[in-house]
Amino acid sequence: METEDTTRGSVADAANPAPCCDPAEDVDWGEWLCRELVAHFDVETEPCAVELVQRAAGRLNAKRAPAAPLEPIILWMTTPTAFIGPGRYIYLSRGLLHQACCQEAVAFTLAHEMAHHDLGHTQLYRGKLALVRHLRGSLIAAAVLTMADHWLNGPENEAAADARSLDLCLAAGYDGARCLELFDLLERYALDHGAIECVFGPEEDLHSVQEGHHGWRAAARSWIWRHRYGYLPIRARKEQLLARLGAPDRTRRGQRAIR
Ligand SMILES: [Zn+2]
Question: What is the pLDDT of residue 251?
Fold first, then answer.
């Protein structure tokens, strides 16, 4: 049962965020975030979608045991996205499910968020959610996504979560190459919205083979770009995972054609 939260909602909270320093507090913050998001966004109840996500989560959670299972929630958000907060919930947007090509891509999405949890990345929320506690609904979702981009999803964390996600999917019996079709979905969405650098990275990366005395500048711009966006370009992420799979890189020819 939901009870009135008497500690919620003051600017004083934001000015003096209470440190979240134990697992029980992580769970409390997770329950608070879930209540706020579910109260603002409709939750998908369409049986096929729910079953698809629950089945994938069940297979992945079984391989994570004895770790506590994580629970997916589908929010009626149009942007194809997924994120994890503190506690036990993973959030997927209906927009992502609508565009996802196959169950393997959904599984990889869930496994990636599970990896953030299992690698301890969600601990980076500690003490920070108090900053957004006075917000409501969509503002909370936007704030949490922004926090995740800046603190949770650094390029190193993203690469580690990608690798662990692929390993978990393989352990759960999924086809790895099909899992990586998620990146095709993300690429299409980014290109449709003009976010070319999100797909290919900064222009300088394309010419980084010409190192010379300007190489340091390209490297610096690349570093800044990655830390600004918080993750590697979509193509680079997929290439790394294809290499992990030992599969041929089938995207390079397309990259040259699009560029
Ligand atoms: Zn991530």
Answer: 45
